[in-house]
Amino acid sequence: MDTPPVLPPGRPAVLAEHQAAQFRLLADNVPVLIAIFDAVDRTCRFANREYARSFGLDEHSVLGRTFAEIIGEEAAREIAPHVERVLNERVSVNYERRLERGDGRPHWIEVNLIPYVPAGTDRVESAFVLISDITRFREAERAARESEERLTKFMQASMEGIVFHRDGVITDVNPPLCELVGYTLEELVGRTALSTVAPDQVEVVREVMASGRETRYPTAILHRSGERIDVEFIVRTLWFNGERLRMTIVRDLRPHLDALARIQHLAEHDPLTGLLNRPAFMERLRERLSRPDAPRAALLFIDLDNFKRVNDSLGHLEGDQVLATVAERLQGGLRASDLVARFGGDEFVVLLEDVHQRRDVQTVLNALLSVVEVPVQADGRDLSVTPSIGVAMYPEHGDSPEELLQHADTAMYLAKTAGRATSRFFEPAMAQNAYADLVIEAELAQALTADEFVLFFQPQVDAQTGHLTGAEALLRWRHPERGLLTPDAFILVAERHRLMVPLGEWVMHEAARQARDWHERGIAEVPIAVNLSSMQFRLGSFAKSVAHVLKTAGVPGDWLELELTERMLTDEIDRLPELLQSLRAQGLAISIDDFGTGYTALNQLTRLPLDKLKIDQSFVAVLPDDRGAAAITRAVVQMAKGLGLRVGAEGVRNPRQWHLLAEWGCDELQGEVIAPAMPAGEFEAWLAARGKPRPPGLDI
Ligand code: C2E
Ligand code: CA
Ligand code: CA
């Protein structure tokens, strides 16, 4: 340091004065505090106005005061080491000081102490003090440091991964991000941000980066292991130290998705068993069937046997326990990929995929049947809850979930009626009406042994006098669930499945027994008419079975009448005349039922040994208004008379019809106007209450 701007000794006074003024002007107008102190007595030899003022003095009064007097003893002590260094070591010293101002805000100064060693000497003659206020600079610096610190702290504290990148190159990441992707900070810094993005997401992320948008969006990244992680990116742009940085918060969506999955699980599963519920199963079934490469599959509809009984007698808790056990065993007997659902109550549904042959399915069915059997004690009895299983195959039994389910249900119902704890494959014959038939068939077989059939009796009376001439036995089935069934609900099925033979025999026997009862008790000494089915009639052994019935019931043949339809006459029955002859020989009367609806050749009527024609109800029903029906009825009556046959009319509903039929020459009448078909007891009561019969039709 040379040529200090102090009054150099030995210079001309004018120049010195001039220079001093210039120096003063300069010193007073720089934003720096300037002072010069004597190195020996430490008094102030020069100070600019700002310096003097900052200590409450002016540029004149400050002169001659010692350093300690100006800045205070304490401050002087503080900076004494710096001063000593300047004086003793003859070096410039630079330090900063924090001062408290009146307003309490911190105030920063930078102090430069510069020794003055006159040329030619080695002694420090004086020291320059230059003080600049650096408060603003310090504050700016602190603010910058604090914001960086804040960001760092925030980044460190965040549970979410955060990555900074500049122009797509990673500049910083926080520990959670490292953890999320499985790389260290060192490995990540310098890499391109896109390198951790899942390949299928790279384009989207690149686009967002290029656009500079501040946004948030779901995407996916890759863990070091290659595992894909669903995340959300929240992207912000920051200006930092004049640089444009991109900050991305990487939020792991997995816990969130897990929660969603849990909620979805709740919505899709039966809480009791944990199995899929109905809507969820149907949805998945639909989804699987809609795949173009959907494999052959089997849909199992499972209903538990005896469950209702267990639930009713042991209570719901026990019932729930049984259901849970069944669910467990079902799953145990199946592959993990099979879909298992509880449809509610004691119904379960299973989808077996990839079953190539029925044999494969049968194997599974056998396994389920043996494994799903829960023994329980109910009502003091040993019961076992077993499955009845119906199976529909995809695609042959349907390609929609609903159709498959419907068919599996049908097959299940049949499995159930065939005896419990068994399985059935759907067959197209089971569909629609045939389904009901099969159900009835299964039930009919049991009904006969369970004594569920009864005979009703409908009176037949003399059209002129109203006297009882006979009774028609009409079959009824007291179905345990469906109530009293009339023949139209089951006769066709019984015929188709040969059950009509034993059933028809039962009817004949029961009718004969009733006839004897009434004869013996003197209630009604009239024949009972029995309807025959063509199946019975066609059997070669029919005449013999009739003989057997008569014999076992102990009644003569003329207590029974047989009603045949026209169809039976036109069917090719071997030796029909002989058959009828042998029946008549046993005393039975033969009548043709529903006459007028078939195509009996008139010459046949003349050749066959018959007793009676019953005009079909359809003609009677429309009397008297339908002139065609009236004409036919009258013609039939006349023809029958001509052939020497009796004529009956059935379905007579009102006195007007009765009156007409009687007038036209009908012999016997049957229908609601007289009485409906009734159980034997009611029939007797009706008869007893009737007193002296009178044809009401004749009164009007
Ligand atoms: P069907 O032999 O023509 O029997 C007369 C049917 O007409 C009976 O119906 C009877 O209840 C009904 N009926 C009689 N009068 C009236 C009336 O005034 N109004 C109405 N609406 N109906 C009347 P059900 O008992 O339902 O029998 C229907 C058919 O079932 C019978 O027709 C018969 O073909 C057959 N069937 C009845 N029992 C047996 C049986 O034991 N064996 C056979 N093979 N078939 C039987
Ligand atoms: Ca009849
Ligand atoms: Ca009839």
Blueprint (SSEs and pairs):
Layout (H helix, E strand, L loop, with lengths): L12 H17 L2 E7 L5 E4 L1 H6 L12 H5 L1 H17 L3 E8 L5 E11 L9 E8 L1 H23 L3 E6 L2 E5 L1 H7 L3 H4 L13 H10 L3 E8 L5 E13 L2 E10 L1 H15 L9 H13 L6 E9 L1 H8 L1 H17 L6 E6 L2 E7 L4 H14 L2 E5 L2 E14 L6 H17 L5 E3 L6 H18 L3 E10 L5 E12 L3 E3 L5 H6 L3 H21 L7 E4 L2 H5 L3 H12 L6 E6 H5 L5 H10 L3 E7 L6 H6 L4 E4 L1 H5 L5 H17 L2 E4 L5 H10 L3 E2 L8 E2 H11 L10
Helix pairs in contact: 11-12, 14-15, 17-19
Overview in brief:
The chain is of the alpha+beta class and 700 residues long. It has 26 helices and 26 strands. Strand 15 (381-394), helix 14 (401-417) and strand 16 form a beta-alpha-beta unit.
CATH class of the largest domain: Alpha Beta
Write the CATH fold name of the largest domain.
Answer: TIM Barrel
- Placed side by side, the strands forming the largest sheet appear as 17-18-20-21-22-23-24-25
Separation of the first and last Cα atoms: 156 Å
Largest sheet properties: 8 strands, mixed, barrel
CATH homologous superfamily (4th level) name of the largest domain: EAL domain
**Structural domain tally:** 4
Radius of gyration: 58 Å
> Given the C-alpha coordinates, what overall shape results?
rod-shaped
Gross CATH architecture of the largest domain? Alpha-Beta Barrel
The fraction of residues assigned to DSSP E strands is 25-35%
Q: Indicate the low-confidence ranges by residue numbers.
A: 1-5
The hetero molecules present are: ligand C2E, calcium ion
